[in-house]
Automatic annotation (TrEMBL), chain A:
Name the UniProt record assigns to this protein: N-acetylglucosamine transport system substrate-binding protein
Signal peptide segment: 1-30
Keyword entries, A-Z: Signal, Transport
InterPro entries (UniProt xref): Bact_solute-bd_prot1 (IPR050490), Chitin_NgcE (IPR022386), SBP (IPR006059)
Major subcellular site: other
Organism: Micromonospora ureilytica
SUPFAM superfamilies, per database record: Periplasmic binding protein-like II
Entry's localization field: Cell envelope
Claim: Metal-binding is one of the keywords in the record: no
UniProtKB/TrEMBL annotation, chain B:
Primary localisation category: membrane
Entry protein name: N-acetylglucosamine transport system permease protein
Lineage of producing organism: Bacteria, Bacillati, Actinomycetota, Actinomycetes, Micromonosporales
Transmembrane portions of the chain: 7-29, 71-93, 114-131, 162-185, 216-239, 269-291
Mode of membrane association: Multi-pass membrane protein
Amino acid sequence: MNRRDILRRSAAAGLLATPAAGLLSGCATSGGGDKNDAETYQGTKSAQNPLGVKEDAPLEVVIFGGGFGEEYAKAHEAMYTEKYPKAKIKHSSTQEISKTLQPRFVDGTPPDVVNNSGSSQIDFNGLVSQNALAGLDELLAAPSLDIPGKTVKDTLLPGAVEVGSYDGKFLVLNYTYTAYGIWHSAKLFADRGWSYAKTWDEHIALCKQIKAAGIAPWTYAGLHPRYMSWPLISTAIKFGGPSVATAIDNLEPSAWKSDSMRAAADAWHQIVKDKYILDGSSGLDHKQSQTAWCQGKAAFISCGSWLESEQKDVTPAGFNMTIAPTPSLGSGDKLPFEAIRGTAGEPFMVPAKARNVAGGLEYFRTMLSKKGAQDFTKKVASLTVVAGATEGVELPYGLSTVVKALDASGANGFNWVYNSFYRKLERNLVDAACGEFFSGRIGPAEFLQQCQKGADSIAQDSSVKKYKRAA
Amino acid sequence: MKHGKWPLIVTFLVPPVLLYVFFVVSPYLQAFQISTTDWLGYSADANPVGLANFKTLWHDDYVWNALKNNAILLGLVPVLTIVLGLFFATMLAMGGRKGSAGVTGVRGGALYRTVYFFPQVLSVVIIALLWKEVYHPNQGLLTSAVHAVGLPAPTWLGDPATAFWCVLAVMVWSNVGFYVVLFGAAMSAVPKEIYEAVLLDGASRFTTLRRVTLPLLWDTVQVAWVYLAIFALDGFILVQLMTNGGPNFSTDVIGVRMYDTAFGSETKFGYASAIGVVMFFLTLSVAVLSLRVGRRERIEYS
């Protein structure tokens, strides 16, 4: 494949593929494409079949072929066919969700279940604003498949529904549960006699000690600097309370320049000023920086709980990676030190125009059963949104620290969703500002100014649908 | 034979032309149409908005920033690539001198040609990943080399001051080999007698290159120019894989902007098509201009 091919293929998946799709559905811009409505599958509802699955209806599942692979999905599909032996399941896996499925969305013939993930996932703002997703409320109200006496909703961890909701409508099932924090090697810390600092002053003192020992205290993914916005915003939320996050999510004017954000940016500027960051970090991508960290060149790195499986191949034995919450700014913090950012991730959706919507929801019910969730955790070493599903499953070291951190955080856990409401804001604008800030080219005031400018530009863009969320 | 001409033409020409119109021309036309809508790409709903997308484009700082970078690429990549390509090709074709009247290449010319051509064999994706490691700020080949001579190395791709030039260097590197071979082929078509005559007249190598080789190669150089100009207006894969336009948009190009608008950070297919239409006209203008400017200096020697 040469460069023109790639450019043509990518930029023109829409432009090139639409003529065919256009012929079928009466052209992209003429607003056709509803002719499949008559052929949707619907069975009769019963206690055994609360979602009304037509038992011989085929089900098509498209899985993102990323870090989790596709074996877990095949297991879920097997569980589904156990209950509906007559249903034929069509399974496929791709890394290019957007390009593969875009023409099918336009055509009005999308698959029944889509794992919309990875770097080429489809922007949710676009999908939701075009009413392309089926509502999942029926699923929440249905009884759990194998946890007696509870509805599906009762079995989910806190925040799992919220993060998939747009204007109060639950549309996206985020299947995994991810914690975001600061990682260190328990082995390195034990060998050197260091212990993780709970306040910012102690953290800076510890950094000084680490640097004196010839190790860089911090490293980060300079080519994806938004990874560092996570601990910074976390620090601000722990200092000023969850309203800091809702203000940012709701694009409130000067949300990024609140006192809490200012205090957090000032604090984090310290590690830049004192040169506590591994030389050259600003030129590393996420894999390169994580690898430098695994090699013991730096002590801390900011990442989500997928870090352990992502680094599986290069982590030395006995490294014992451990997640920890961001340090508290001081005694005035509204949230305790233990509070950590926890959120549901790995989005699954049922397209509104899927032919077997009931089957898609039933497939979700299978995934959210205790059996389905445990099988997932065993296969890919990641937590699911199903509460208590890790019972009796032996977890790898890093993931067990994630479970502990989430338990300790409990009801103090927090999250923000501006990144899924407005993908561009985090991926492009805050990302660029973080790059300038953590490489020391701009100071805290200018950093917040740039982020705010980005948020304002989204707020003023009338072509982007806006969402609000309550505190 | 004459009575069988039309069926033959129809059979062999009409189907390909139809296929071409359907799969190549019609998408372009449709891109024009989509660029006048607010289509978001995941449903069949699109409303015509006239030229609103182009108006937004005109005021979009990020697009202008990307265009500025493309303009710099347009100014430098073809010149650097052609100059280096000509230089290497000349060395290979007539760098060595055998006796008093012979014109030969340097010793091991075939090997050099293979080495120069090597980047062309690799997929662009591999080139991008390879150079990302070369530019690794701590372990990279380049960094180590700079450190070895006792100089401080920048963080290459992590610094807005250097990232763009690093990508530009890779663009030139990955293209030069092809033009060395292209110019080499063109040079071998130049009659040897001309060189022998020039040599007998006592011309220096530089004069030979400037006064004889270059004018005779002008057609080829012109083709190279057009290709490289189109490449410079694109530059998509290398930028996307090496820096994705960062840090702080310092390496952004128009192709990345279009991709990002359609598939990356948002899904605005109408707007992305508008960027594509602008790209189309820019590329077309550059191609037409370079052909026009070049045509006047055409020299015929046969």
